[in-house]
Specification:
single chain, mainly alpha
Amino acid sequence: MQRQWLYTGIVLFLFFVLVLGVPLFPEFLATGIARPMNLGMLLFLILHVLTPILDRSKEADEDRNKFKLMSVN
């Protein structure tokens, strides 16, 4: 359960940095990283890649807990 809150916090933090950072710090998020990509685009990409990965690890934890409960009974 504690890990779930950590994952939720990470995703929400990235989301709020993206949503609030673009209007508040446009020069910073427009910093170029690669030719077509800037920091804001990289943050958007990380958010969309990281969210399903963290969700799958949550499901894996739930499956492990179910298996532990089954093996105890």
